[in-house]
What does this fold into?
Amino acid sequence: MIKIAIPTGRVQKDAIKVLKSAGVPTNNLEKASRELSIDEDNFRFFLAKPMDVPLYVYYGTTDLALAGSDVLMEVSVNLLELADTGLGQCRLVVAGPWSLKSRFDGHEKELMWLRVATKYPNIAERHFASKGVRVEIIKLHGSVELAPQLNIADCIVDITQTGKTLEANDLIVLEEVCPVSLKLVSRRYGSASYWRECLNITEGIKNRVRRSKDV
It folds into this structure.
């Protein structure tokens, strides 16, 4: 039985869509309501919080997972990236009020000790450390866009797709951290008994990506 972890929330529909396009049976998965473990044919699917998904694979609970590259960067466990699905695309950015733009356009030392609110403390810390800048990281679990308004932080590190949520909260993109998309990942070491099926799924996803580029 092939076990696959799927993130709940923003990219859940994309994850199911890409599995279906790769020939994986998803009827039970599409009909699931409150179930967190769903069986279908030779597959077992686990629906998990996005930040938990890489750990399901890393500790051998599942053979494969679909996870956002932002989550993979944040959790930072040693997994094998099999395919980029091309779905769930957005950007991870530093955003803040317009008044901060001159500091980000100036010398990097002007960014020292900014208060940065984020759901991605590891990514945020590495991003600013790469500039030689030390900042205060404030980890939030809710809508980080509110943090500058509430004077909890000077700026935020978060994902954005259209920028409309940032704009609605009087924030602008100050700099881009990295692009984000949904990736298929596996353990680096595992039983050969399931590997052929995993490769079939990987090739199915890659074929879907190639077809989408040809359209």
